[in-house]
Write a structure and sequence with these properties.
By secondary structure, this protein is an alpha+beta fold. The chain is built from nine helices and ten strands. The strands form three sheets. Strands 6, 7, 8, 9 and 10 form a five-stranded antiparallel β-sheet that branches. It has a three-stranded antiparallel β-sheet with strand order 1-3-2, with helices on one face. Strands 4-5 form a two-stranded antiparallel ribbon. Helix 1 crosses helix 7, helix 2 crosses helix 6 and helix 6 crosses helix 7. The relative contact order is 0.17. The model has no long low-confidence stretch (mean pLDDT 93).
C-alpha cells in the first residue's frame, strides 16, 4: 500500500452529523500520536463529491494511519467512565458534586460537555442535558452507558449468519468508516446522530423495530464520534427575558425554536484547535465572513422528534 501525505476520507459525507463528529474524533485520536505531528484536515470542495482530506507532515499508509487512530482511540476511551450511571438524568445536587470531582480528574472534559450546574430544567428536578443527548432510557437506550461502552467495544458483532458469518477486526471497522462509502453493516449500538437512524413506520413493508429488519450502523464511526464529545463543551445561554438554556459548541436554534447543530465545510487545511474555533464563531451565517475564513458553506442539522424518539436531520447547506 502506497504511503501518502494526503488521505481522502470517502466515508465521511458532509451532510451527516455522525460523520462530522467522527472527523473530530479522528483528529483527536491522531493528536495523541507523537509520530504524526500537526495533522490537519480540509474538504475537497474542488473535487466533488466533497469529502474531508487528512494532511500529514510525512507519508503514511492507510494501514499505518488506522493503527495510529486505534491507539489514540483506545487511550481516549479509557478516560470515559460514569461509574455505572446509565442516563443523563442528574439532579442539581448530584451535578454540583459530579462537576467538582470531575475538575480533579480526566473526566473533566467529558462532564463539561454534558451538563452545567447553572442550567436547571423548568421543573427544577434535574440539570438540562447537552442537546446532543437523544436518549433517556426510552426503548432501553441509555446515553451515558453508550458514551462509555461504544468506544470501548473494539470490534462490532460478527456479520452474516451461518457459514457466511464473519468476524470483523477493530482496524477493519475503523478503515471502513473512514475510507469506504458507508454500508452500515453493524448490529451495534449508536447515538441516533446519523440521519439514516430516523426510521419510521410509514411507507415501510416491515417493522423497523424487528431485530431481523432493524437498521444497522457504522460502528467505527460511532466509536470516533464518542471520543469527540468532550470537545463539544456546553455553557449557559441566557436569552433575553427567558430562563437560561444550555448551549453546546456548534449548537443553536432555528426560527421555530428547534435545536440545531452547525458545522463548516472549509477549504484550507486546519488543525483540531482551529476547527473548534470555527464551531465557536458567532457569525458563520454571514456569507462574507465565511468567505474570509475560507469556509465554502455551513451545514445545519435539526433535532426532530418522532414520538418518544429523537434524531438529527441531514445537514442542509445554510
Amino acid at each position: 500500500m502506497t504511503a501518502k501525505i494526503r488521505h481522502r476520507l470517502n466515508g465521511l459525507e458532509p451532510d451527516n452529523l455522525l460523520a462530522f463528529l467522527a472527523l473530530l474524533g479522528l483528529l483527536r485520536a491522531l493528536q495523541r500520536d507523537d509520530d504524526l505531528p500537526s495533522v490537519r484536515a480540509s474538504w475537497s470542495v474542488d473535487r466533488p463529491p466533497a469529502r474531508p482530506v487528512l494532511h500529514l507532515t510525512r507519508p503514511e499508509t492507510e494501514t499505518g494511519l488506522v493503527d495510529s487512530v486505534v491507539r489514540g482511540l483506545r487511550g481516549l476511551a479509557a478516560q470515559i467512565d460514569f461509574d455505572g450511571r446509565k442516563d443523563l438524568r442528574v439532579t442539581p445536587a448530584e451535578g454540583s458534586v459530579l462537576l467538582r470531582e470531575a475538575r480533579r480528574s480526566e473526566a473533566g472534559d467529558v462532564w463539561s460537555a454534558l451538563v452545567s450546574d447553572a442550567v436547571i430544567s423548568r421543573d427544577g428536578t434535574r440539570l438540562e442535558p447537552t442537546p446532543l443527548c437523544l436518549m433517556f432510557g426510552q426503548g432501553h437506550q441509555h446515553f451515558l452507558d453508550r458514551v462509555a461502552s461504544i468506544p470501548r467495544l473494539k470490534a462490532p458483532p460478527d456479520r452474516g449468519r451461518g457459514r457466511a458469518k464473519k468476524a470483523i477486526s477493530e482496524e477493519q471497522a475503523i478503515a471502513e468508516a473512514l475510507f469506504d462509502q458507508w454500508q452500515r453493516p453493524d448490529a451495534a449500538q449508536s447515538f441516533r446522530w446519523d440521519p439514516r437512524e430516523d426510521v419510521r413506520y410509514a411507507l415501510r413493508a416491515n417493522d423497523p423495530t424487528d431485530a431481523r429488519t432493524k437498521e444497522t450502523t457504522q460502528h467505527g464511526a460511532n466509536r470516533l464520534a464518542a471520543i469527540a464529545l468532550p470537545l463539544l463543551t456546553v455553557a449557559p445561554q441566557a436569552p433575553f427575558g427567558g430562563r437560561p438554556r444550555l448551549a453546546v459548541r456548534g449548537g443553536g436554534r432555528d426560527a421555530s425554536g428547534r435545536i440545531t447543530f452547525s458545522w463548516p465545510i472549509w477549504r484550507d487545511p486546519a488543525d483540531l484547535s482551529c476547527v473548534c474555533h470555527l464551531l465557536d464563531h458567532p457569525r458563520l451565517d454571514d456569507a462574507k465572513i465565511r468567505q474570509a475564513l475560507g469556509i465554502v458553506e455551513q451545514r445545519v442539522a435539526t433535532r426532530v422528534a418522532n414520538g418518544k424518539f429523537m434524531n438529527f436531520t441531514a445537514g442542509v447547506a445554510a
